[in-house]
Amino acid sequence: MFGQLVEYIKIAAKDNFKVATQKIRNYIEELDLEDFQEIVKNIGTIPENIIHDSTEEKLYSKASDIVLARCFRVLGLDAKALEERADSADILAESTKGYQYSLVADAKCFRLSRTAKNQKDFKVSNLSDWRGSENEYAVLVAPYFQYPQNKSQIYSKALEHNVCLMAWEHIALLLEHKVKETENYSLESLWNSSQMIARDSSLAFANRQDCFLRKIDRFVAKKLQMEETVYEAELEKYKSFLVLRGKVEINYWKNQIEIIKGYSHEQAIKELIAAKKLNEKISVISAYIDKLKN
Asked: Do 268 and 260 meet the contact criterion of CB atoms below 8 Å apart?
């Protein structure tokens, strides 16, 4: 089902962006829950066959927002992916069970081939700002194993600004085990987890940049009513699943290498010129010179 979504995005990319976004929204909303959960497991990893820095990639990012908004609704909140706007959160969600809170959220997806990620890739401070005064919580959802595994400023910033750092794997597990907010069961403590960790007296100020995903895991395991050893086994399944995804992505690039090996000399030159965007660079400089002449 995930592969079908990727192909649908590629086809939709030929349309106007707004029209394409609506098509993808309709596609995702009409999926049955089982198929939707498969997409949740996969969406955090951008396929290598999605062209980098393209309309396809932008639509994929928008699809991840739509997927996360539906995840919040399955979890019992009222949620929607917002229209494309600068300097604002991508998703707004609100409790409808009398708990009187709302949150903004941001969905992050990365390629397995993506190298060093820094704090700017996660936009923790931005997410805190986008919360504004009217929303209680800010939630970042990114692939679990793409978060920095040791030290990073994103952790100190999350603690400082009370930004909840969740993973797609966490969300997938919550959906798989049918966790849902009701009048008698609140998920609010999950979205407030960073503040609860910040209040933990065992966390020395000097260690605030240390990865605290393991602490988040405990909050998720508690909501799942799951022993930590069982939770660890569940998380390990996602690690194995990601290994399989990695093999698929490697095979894609190996196939690309074989295709390139079959290029004629002339075709190889054309592809290299296109890859380096040399004609585009010439056009930009020419336009600048024309302005100077006029």
From this structure: yes
Q: What's the CA gap between 58 and 54, in Å, rounded?
A: 6
Report field, pTM of the whole predicted structure over 0.90: no
What's the chain's Rg over C-alpha atoms?
21
d(Cα 75, Cα 138) in Å, to the nearest integer?
16
- Helix, strand or coil, per DSSP, at residue 210: strand
Q: What is the pLDDT of residues 127-143, one digit of tens each?
A: 888 888 888 999 999 99
The three-class DSSP label of residue 2 is helix
Token pair 């991508």 in the structure block, residue: 90
Nearest to 212 by CA among 226, 230, 231, 199: 199
195 and 271 belong to one structural domain: no
Question: For residue 116, what pLDDT is reported?
Answer: 59
> Which of 231, 248, 271 lies at the terminal end of a domain, its last residue?
231
Residue 61 to residue 25: CA distance in whole angstroms:
12
